[in-house]
Amino acid sequence: MQKMTIRDINIKDKRVIIRLDFNVPLDANLHITDERRITSSLPVIQYALSQGASKVILMSHLGRPKGTGFEKELSLLPVAKRLEELLKEKILFLNDCVGPQVKEEIAKSSQRLVLLENLRFHKAEEKNDPAFAKELASLADIYVNDAFGTAHRAHASTAGITAYLPAVSGFLIEKELQYLGHAINNPVRPLVIILGGAKVSDKIELIQNLIPKANSIIIGGGMAYTFLKAKGINIGNSKLEKDKIDTALSLMDQAKKAGVDIVLTKDFVITQSFTSDDCKISDTIPDGWESLDIGPKTIQSYDAVLSKAKTVVWNGPLGVFERDAYANGTRAVAQYLASLKDVTVIIGGGDSAAAVAKFGLEDKMTHISTGGGASLEFLEGKELPGIAALNDKK
Ligand code: AMP
Questions:
Q1: What is the CA angle 282-316-262, rounded to 5?
Q2: In the CATH scheme, what architecture does the domain 6-169 have?
Q3: Rounded to whole angstroms, how far apart are CA atoms 260 and 216?
Q4: How confident is the prediction for the chain on average, in pLDDT?
Q5: Does 325 contact ligand 1 (Cβ within 6 A)?
């Protein structure tokens, strides 16, 4: 079922409250070091203003406060200042998000644009406390959720509030549902999934959900070694989840039965110590060595599969990409994906999004999900509470 968006509802002369993801990184001087979450939120704010909403009230969390009140280093004040510059419009920044004073200040202010203080200064937010959700709802007539990154959490500002107001999505969530949903449920085939990252245990549900949907699944990164071990291949000291060997065997068996090709690592970049950058390319992993990246033959085998793909979904780096010595595999795959024509390439948030950004290839991908945990749960086929709670399109 499709969800209603802010375009499907009349917001003229209405008070609109928008849940955004302003969880931006701040340095020691409380300067914003990456403002992409703010800039990507501008379209929905500008739209609400342009459609004549009487108040546009913005709310977000920032970091992980203790939930016992104000903490200066997690205040949204730097976001308020930057938003004013970007929107060229004055913002009423309030020092709390609920309570009679907040209501009064919003009502008496001539400013249309309001930013509430960090929602998580109240424990009630993450507890999805109904009284707190009702308080937030009492500030507005319509609720808009455009914070995909927290849509997998049932919090007061993402789920609870929808019990009291008409609830629609903003443009970012609409786009996430369009791209992720289409890629998984209705892809132009072949659909190739690339999975990496540290642990098999984090990706079991994902692989299980994708086996019936994908044509090929590439498994690289730290999680690949448990699969190789399961096949009887020596992996030296490489990352292994012993208790997941049977799971790996069962997943490979399920894939075989479903006719899905599983592509594993064929050669390695090996080292004798995880902390050392002293490494070499090898077809095997001798005892005493561990592999921290995929080798050139593996990259070639990926390219052969990817050259036939029409849709690609990538989740998880293929090596320890944070370190130059082990970034080559992840970079090569990112570059190959960037070079593909007429192929939908979806990057599923978190570390893979960070990797694509590190290599300066963000503009070359069809869609980069803004939510790490949320996009993983979406790809696992789970219902995201913050999305399920939105009104269905009629
Ligand atoms: P995840 O949080 O599951 O997405 O895992 C991401 C982490 O996996 C990154 O920090 C990578 O450095 C790490 N990683 C990728 N490949 C390997 C590997 N071969 N050995 C150890 N860690 C790896």
A1: 65
A2: 3-Layer(aba) Sandwich (3.40)
A3: 5
A4: 96
A5: no
Residue 27 has pLDDT above 90, yes or no: yes
d(CA 174, CA 176): 6
Question: Which CATH superfamily is 176-379 part of?
Answer: Phosphoglycerate kinase, N-terminal domain (3.40.50.1260)
Distance 181 CA to ligand 1 centre (A): 26
Residue whose CA is at the smallest distance from ligand 1 atom 4: 197
What are the residue numbers of the active site? 37, 199, 350, 373
Task: Report CA(211)–ligand 1 centroid distance (Å).
Answer: 22
Which residues contact residue 146 at a Cβ distance below 8 angstroms, ignoring those fewer than 6 apart? Answer: 18, 19, 20, 21, 41, 44, 169, 170, 171, 172, 173
Best residue among 351, 379, 380 to mutate for probing ligand 1's pocket (most ligand atoms within 8 Å of CB) is 351
d(CA 292, CA 173) in angstroms, rounded, equals 35
Pocket test for ligand 1, best of 292, 330, 352 (most atoms within 8 A of CB): 292
Closest CA to 258 of 217, 308, 307: 217
Question: DSSP class of residue 231?
Answer: T
**pTM, full prediction:** 0.89
Sheet holding 367-368, edge to edge: 261-263, 216-219, 191-195, 311-315, 344-347, 367-368
Q: Would you state the pLDDT for residue 46?
A: 98
323 C-alpha to ligand 1 centroid (Å): 11
Q: Where does the pLDDT of residue 394 fall: very low under 50, low under 70, confident under 90, or very high at 90 and above?
A: confident
Query: For the chain, which residues make up each domain, given as ranges?
Result: 6-169, 176-379
Check for a shared fold between 6-169 and 176-379. yes
Query: Which residue is closest in CA terms to ligand 1's atom 21?
Result: 222
